[in-house]
Structures are given as structure tokens and as C-alpha cells.
Design goal:
The complex is a heterodimer of chains A (117) and B (177).
Chain A (H helix, E strand, L loop, with lengths): L6 H20 L2 E2 H11 L8 H13 L3 E6 L8 E6 L1 H26 L5
Antiparallel strand pairs in A: 1-3, 2-3
Helix pairs in contact in A: 1-2, 1-4
Chain B lengths: L2 H12 L5 H18 L7 H12 L3 H17 L4 H4 L5 H19 L1 H24 L1 H4 L10 H24 L5
Helix pairs in contact in B: 1-2, 1-3, 4-6, 4-7, 6-7, 6-9, 7-9
The chains are: A mainly alpha (117), B mainly alpha (177).
Amino acid sequence: MTRKTDAVTELRRGAFELALLAFLDKEASFGGAIIDGLEEATKGGFTVTEGALYPALGRLEKKGYLEPEMRKDIEGRKARKYYSLTPDGKVRLKELKEAWLPLVEGMNILFMGDENE
Amino acid sequence: MSEIENYLKQVRKGMRFVSRTNKTSFCDELGAQFEHRGSLPQENPVALGKAMRQVYGIGMFYRIILIVTAFPLGIFSIPMISSWFPGVPVNLFLLLSLVWVFLAAYYGGRWSGLFTGLSAATPRIIALIIFSIGLDFINTFFDSYEVSSEVTGLVLITSLLLPIVGFVSGGRIRRPE
């Protein structure tokens, strides 16, 4: 069975890795908090489901961009798996940012027209 | 059974063949999320489990099973064997070996694909060496046994292709995001 992916899904998928790395660069976080935090930090621009988040976290961890750490914040509660960026993750974030920013700038000019014109 | 326990049971079902450590670790992570958010994940649990299986791959035990079982498949795919046992469908076994290699590559990654391919190729290469070097010895038991250069070449190429296909396809298969 093939899954149909449209352009919007592809766009969001491409930006998701960058969003995740940028979010975790600010502070280490765990699954549930990432879902809420990312939505809040992007003012609803990024709504993430568990089905997208956990495989993405797993892939980034496997690639060596994220480092997990089990923390027990509150006694009697389950330990949470906090993810933080590794040095490789920081390099990857820098690369993606450098590719992303001119792209966004260019697209904004395309959509709204160059104000200097 | 509570709703989260039931949900995690379904996730585990989706993560069939994944190592116990990874299954437990991921279910603990989901359990902690449930504790934090107070609601079940929106995702279908089996689909979520399957998506995680694509990330972790199958467990070492299952990878070894695929590697070990590829060896007898390789033996029965040796064309020369059909001279002694005409009923053996060697081409079918070669096809099965290839399917085995793809399975290992898809679920276990490129190294599983490579080792499963090597396991299937090993008896074929050994047979090729025996039939190339020891043909005179073999013919002391079987009169005028011959192996044509076409068959030799075909066995060599297909044997080399098995591990290569496993390694290359393991890295190229596009897994669902």
C-alpha cells in the first residue's frame, strides 16, 4: 500500500527536522513536552502528532544528532526520556538554518514582491 | 486493563520483531507522555508501533534467524544440485534467497542485508570452488560430470549479487515517514 503525500506534507516534513533541532537546541525536552512546546513556540504553526514526532526523534537519535537521557523529575512518576542536541546535531542545525533562511527570504520576496521595487 | 495499558499493548503489536529493549524503552516513553499530558496519543497505536519498527529495525535475534536460514536456501539454490536431485527447484530457492535478502535489508538495514546475502552466497561459492577444482575427484563417483562455463559464470554472478543487493537496497529502501 502506498501513502499519498502531497506538496504540503512534503514541505512540513522537510521543515520538521529543522524545527525539532531548533526547539531542542534551546533546551532538552521530552516527547509530550515537545508536542506542546513546539506548537506554542511556533504559535500553532507546527502541530505535531506522536506518529510524526517519535519516529523523527528515533531517526535523529540514530543519526547521532540527538542524545537521550532518562530523568526522573518527580519521585513516584515515570522517568522521562529527555532529548538534547549533540555537537553533530548542532552542526546539522547550523547547516539546515543556512539553507533555510535564504529560502524563506526568497519565497517571501516571491510572494509579496520586492519592497524596493 | 487501563486504557494506556491497552494502547501500549497495541503499540507492542505494531512493534513485532523489534528487540524487547527497544519495545520497552518506547512504551515507557509513551507511558511518561500519558502521565504528562493526561491523554492518549492521537495516533493509531499499531501504526505508531510499525513506524517505530521502521526506525529501530527488527531485533538481533530475528536478524540472526534470517542470516542462518539464508544458508540452507543458498545450498538448495546451487544449480549443480539438480543433477543429483532433479526434483529440487533451484531457481525457486534462488528467488527465495533473494526475497530473504530483501526482507533482511528492509527490516534490519544494510548490514543485515549484506550478511544475509553473504550467508546465502557462501554455499554457492563453496560449491563453485569444489566443482571448479575438484571436478576430477567428483567424477570418480559420477561419470563424466560436467559444469559448463555458462553455469559457472551465472552462479558466480548471482552469488556476488546477493550480498551486494542486500547492502545497497538496505540503504536505499525508502521507509515510511
